From TrEMBL, chain A:
Belongs to the DprA/Smf family. It comes from freshwater metagenome. The lineage of its organism: unclassified sequences, metagenomes, ecological metagenomes. This is Unannotated protein. Gene3D superfamilies: 3.40.50.450. Pfam families: DNA_processg_A. InterPro entries: DprA, DrpA_SLOG. GO terms for biological process: DNA-mediated transformation. Residues 68-286 form the Smf/DprA SLOG domain.
TrEMBL record, chain B:
Pfam families: ChlI, Mg_chelatase, Mg_chelatase_C. Coiled coil: none annotated. Signal peptide: none annotated. NCBIfam families: YifB family Mg chelatase-like AAA ATPase. This is Unannotated protein. One of its GO terms (molecular function) is ATP binding. Belongs to the Mg-chelatase subunits D/I family. ComM subfamily. Residues 207-385 form the AAA+ ATPase domain. InterPro entries: AAA+_ATPase, CHLI-like, Mg_chelat-rel, Mg_chelat-rel_C, Mg_chelatse_chII-like_cat_dom, P-loop_NTPase, Ribosomal_Su5_D2-typ_SF, Ribsml_uS5_D2-typ_fold_subgr.
Amino acid sequence: MGQHLGLPMWAFAAALSQLEGMTPKKLRIALLHEEPEDAWARAVCDSTTSDEVVARIFECCEHENIQVVSIADPLYPRALRYDPTPPAVLFYRGSLSALQQRRVGIVGTRSPTPSGVYTAREFGEQLAAHEIAVVSGLARGIDGAVHHGMKLHYDDVAHAGHGALGKPIGVVACGLDVVYPKSNAGLWEWVGENGLLLSEYGPGVQPEPYRFPQRNRIIAALSEVVVVVESRESGGSMLTVAEAIRRNIEVFAVPGSPRVASAGGTNLLIQQGCGPVTSVDDLFAALALDHRRESGSSYETRVSPDAHDHDVLLACTDGAVTLDHLVLLLNRPLHDIAVSLGRLEALGWVVDTNGWWEALMR
Amino acid sequence: MFSSIRSATLLGIQGTPISVEVHIGSGLPGFTVVGLPDEACREARDRVRAALLSSGAEWPNKKITVNLAPSSQRKGGVGLDLALAMGILSASGQIPSNNLAEYSFVAELGLDGSLRPVPGAAPLVAGLRESRVVVAPPNAREAKVASPQSIHCAATLRDVVLALRGEGEWVDTASQENVKGGTHFPDMSDVRGQPTARLAAEIAAAGGHHILFVGSPGAGKTMIAERLPGLLPPLTNEEAVTATMIHSAAGASLPPGGLITFPPFRAPHHSASMIAMVGGGSGVLRPGEASLAHGGVLFLDEVGEFMPSVLDALRQPLEEGEVRIARASAGVTLPARFLLVGATNPCPCGGGAPGACVCNETARARYLRRLSGPFLDRFDLRVAVAMTGVEELLDVHEGEPSAVVRQRVARVREISLHRSGGVNARLSAQELDTYAPLTNAARDVLRRELELGRLTGRGYHRIRRVARTLADLSGNDGEIAEETVRVALLLRTRLHEREVA
């Protein structure tokens, strides 16, 4: 039965995973006990499902450049093999060797503040530079920003022919041929080319809401430590944290202002005992790579603002403010503040989101 | 057994003279109206008959044919009632026809013979300028705006007949003339704090710049927008007459004096249809909100909730200052030069400081997408309005009153009128080079914005126009300084967050 198809084993495993009525548990048991081909034959023997399904999924994966690894395969990631709820079949693009690097999971809200985005981007850049892989979910907001930061570093050193870099590892909640969100399409492709793009779902599977918590468990399982950059008190990132705690994986959080809603979750985590992270040095320490935590940045690359502008900068440090706030707070004419903001913005000290100004201190 | 009476019908804001020809001949008793009347016009025969009988006149039991000439043009409305009645009375010899040719008649008839007002009296009378026009008393004020000398009023059909025979008097309308309409715009002094939005409103008024307020619910967007027309100078005579014509044609309410002397303020609800916004409709092509706001302010609250097609339909009036409505049967051009004021939340939940928004991604993207593109680009000023602090809100000191701001606005308008013949918002690119040269520092600021892709070519010109108005307000007549351009940039907030990655 089926031998005559001459299809590789992984195609049968992939087809099994997409079979109707196939639960993750059944799939895992089937694949652990039998060759995928035999498991397939058993599963479809009393149904009308034809072997063409296998051929179709084989062609689809070949065409979309998607590789498949099942739990019985020696290539299957070790980090997942001993997981309480491992995905039985993994679909991926890129190289599984990315998982051999040290791995940090970085997650966060989909609607972050600018400072959250900058932090995530900075972490991405520096972890890439220090040869540490970053696991994330390629979602909008923090997830995208951290991989975007890695990409920035790759682009920076591209012409220099730099040696080893930290790899991006993206775990997504839909088929690898279904790009979601569309705005991250470029990043999606880049991760597949330079690192590892991973999903538990076969080609064509849509990003249904219930798949995201499932995906988050894989992010947690693949990470040695998990860092939450910004999160509300409830949300996908907090689910990732719960999964990490379940697996005894250490969780860190970036502290934020208590006035910022999207830092509510991270601050709560710190209150509950998670370690605070303010720079990548903290992560090196967490990964036992470097115990010398450098206090703050030893140098500032930005040109310091003059005393006049400095007052405006200080007024922007305590959460985002509008022009109105600045005028009333500093009691200076509007045009004067406008000029200061313009200069500060040009030097990279403040950013503007829809009319709200926020300082970017170290 | 024939008579011809003059009246008028309305198309857009233009009154067209009509001859109501009545022929009474032998044959079976009957009453036919020909000459492309609409339903309201055709129903006139029943009203006229009842009105004549109620007034004690006689109904000729003969074959009555009414023609509305020119016969090829559609007629609508009820303003022809009185002319029809007069035609029948004249053709049946119940009133002398010798001096009827001097008169025109524009009024609806009640079944009891009373004269009722019709919408569009001012433009209708304007179309009948060389004759004496009889209108219902409530229409007298607006009719006099179009033609002050030759308006006659009577309360009932019977009074009209008596006056024409020389046995009665027309109603005296002189007493209504000297009523002065006042402004009732709320005052800027009610606004506490909000220095940015105040400045932006002042610039908008002074330079005729369209303005969009973006901010959370309760931040004061609507409050400031409602006070904006109070910052504009009163209308010139010509503008006032045009505004009155438009309001009359649309059947909108007029001030006690009849003439609209203050800038109109129109705030249509966001469920407005395209026709309601730009004008149209079958038959009369009624002016829409865009035309009613001519010379004043069109305020679109919750601008993102308007149907996208309605907003897009505003693009022509925004560019050209008029709406050209074309229909199979007719086309009209309606004036529509207004100051557009929009107000919107940054997202469905109302947003606030960055990170405070709890909307889901798709909802927020959809909300902003409605506002995107060319329409958003029409706003010279896009101002983020934030909640006033408690201190300012409880402050007993009043803000600067509208009257003071209005003086500055009037001065800048005068300067710009003198300089370029219009407001600063309508300066062309060449005129900008001549009248709004930039200092080197200012040019560098704008160059950086252009290089960063944060300013489009169109945005570049808009910033320069706003900067010109700003400089005018501060009494600077020469080159535009850096700080002026910086402020102009701050008053044009980018609405779309740049997507990360």
